[in-house]
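During the practical work, I worked with a single protein chain and the tokens that describe its fold, as given directly below.
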Amino acid sequence: MKKFNTYFVDIDGTIFKYRKFETYMESPVEVIESTKSFLIEKKKEGHMIILTTARPKSMVVHTEWELQTNDIPYDNLLMGIERGPRYLINDMDPNNPGERAIGINLERDKGYEKI
């Protein structure tokens, strides 16, 4: 049985060009196409996409609208997380060597480039 990956992806500065919270409702969203293409590719391959954001939960309807309007694929949306560094902690399978928690840091507003 094939195992699929889970991608935790931040929204602002990664999928959409960065905007300040107070401007979200008035300013148009700018999609970072390289990240959108990456997400579409991963979703087609069957992987899970969990979007994360420090946007307050009160902005869920607006955030979902921006994502849907711009055809951003995702499985779950996690809102209201802290703005500080994010840590992914996972166990390693003793029968299948290799790291199972991988972090990728992108330069803000530059999008995803294949590594």
Q: What stands out?
A: Residues 6-78 form a domain with the Rossmann fold fold (CATH 3.40.50.1000). The mean pLDDT is 92. The two ends are 26 Å apart (CA to CA). Strands lie at 6-10, 48-52, 76-78.
